[in-house]
Amino acid sequence: MQTGSLGDDSVNAIEVDSLNGVHLAGETDFKILVTKLDGAGAQLWSVTFNSGGEDAALALNIDAFGSIIIAGYATKNLDGSFKPAQDKDYFAMKLDSVGSQQWIYQQGSTSDDAACAVHTDASGDIVLAGYTDGDLFGTLGMRDAFVMKLNAAGSSVSWELQFGSDSDDSADAVQIDLSGYIFVAGFTDGIMGSASLGGADIFVMKLTSEGVPQWTFQSGSTGNDYLAGLRLDSSGFPVVAGTTDGSVDGHMNSGGQDAFAMKLQLAGGASVWSWQGGTTDDDSMHAIGIDASDKIFLVGETLGDIDGFSAVGGWDVLAVKLSSDGLLESGIQRGTDQDDAGKAAGFDRAGNLILAGNTAGAWSGTNAGSLDAFAMKVTWQ
Fold first, then answer.
1. Quick one: pLDDT band at residue 311, thresholds 50, 70, 90?
2. C-alpha span between 196 and 213 (Å, rounded)
3. Residue 234 burial by CB count (10 A; 0-12/13-18/19+): exposed, middle or buried?
4. Residues in contact with 359: Cβ distance below 8 Å, sequence separation at least 6, in sequence order
5. pLDDT tens digits for 312-354?
């Protein structure tokens, strides 16, 4: 599936429901885009929302009752009321199973704010994570991370936490385990755990369901390391993935930017294992997925060639498969003759990987504008 406007379009998040419906969230020409496909990739419905400014959905989650929760940012008010400032606000929006809007929750400081991640618990309550350049719940540094819980009706905040170092920080992923514990991950330019390892590091924080921090883990290389995503395996262990231009945990850098992944312990967050790899050129990861067998998939883009594949043109979509023990199993590379990027990963009921992102080219037919959104199913060999 490829679709687009005359402007820039992208899929930034994906989730597959219990009936194999593929839900995509992103942006189209500065509007929020939400689309549902059937298991064969045919569009069932698509809706857009716009504040009259520049808006995007960055995250999506389907709750236990089949409702769709999206989160992101908007520069004006999504409910149509007047908003004088042009800075970004963060928002959460609930849709029913056919894409009809149920409610909007939008808030912000006097500076830029964005909700980068969303997850729901068993009762339908919603946890948002993101960043703020201002004072949402008490400023700590330059750009701070935040996490907060909304009730299922979007009408009240259960708790909220703004946290970070004295430098730039952002919370870019959130997951809730079966016991209600919350795992938040992102990057920091300062100290969130024991010490900074150099440049930007990744962090993972575990909180109770009431938002009380339990531990914070910080890791990285002497270079810059950025989070691509966080998922919990079948035993509830957090697994993170990202991009590094250094050497994480002593691994050898393959050249330029590499992909990396790391599994953490539940108590204290120490590393169980780590992996780093890539081509001899730049590789950049944007998403992680874990299938029903605990196989780990990293999704992003590459300027190089992975084994058995040749670069098609500019940046190509890259997907890497690791075992549950963090061992490299295989990878795939796909692309048009222009730049392509994998931004999101999900799995259908048969265990097939579904990739989504954006392309400046055309997988088939023609490109509608500058960047088009796309989704594709990959049957892994």
1. confident
2. 19
3. exposed
4. 2, 336, 338, 339, 340, 341, 367, 371, 372, 374
5. 888 999 999 999 999 999 999 999 999 999 999 999 999 999 9
Full-model pTM? 0.96
Quickly tell me which residue has 């068993």 as its tokens: 122
* Domains along the chain with CATH numbers: 2-378 (2.120.10.30)
Cβ pair 343, 355 in contact under 8 A: no
Residue/partner pairs of 97-103 with CB below 8 Å, 24 or more apart: 97/66, 97/67, 97/68, 98/45, 99/34, 99/36, 99/45, 99/46, 99/47, 99/68, 101/47, 101/49, 102/67, 102/154, 103/153, 103/154, 103/155
DSSP structural state of residue 8 = B
Q: What pLDDT shows up at residue 365?
A: 84
pLDDT tens column, 210-224: 999 999 999 989 999
Q: Work out the angle at residue 300's Cα, subtended by the Cα atoms of residues 296 and 306, and round it to the nearest 5 degrees.
A: 85
Distance from first CA to last CA of the chain, Å, rounded? 21
pLDDT tens column, 268-299: 889 999 999 999 999 999 999 999 999 999 99
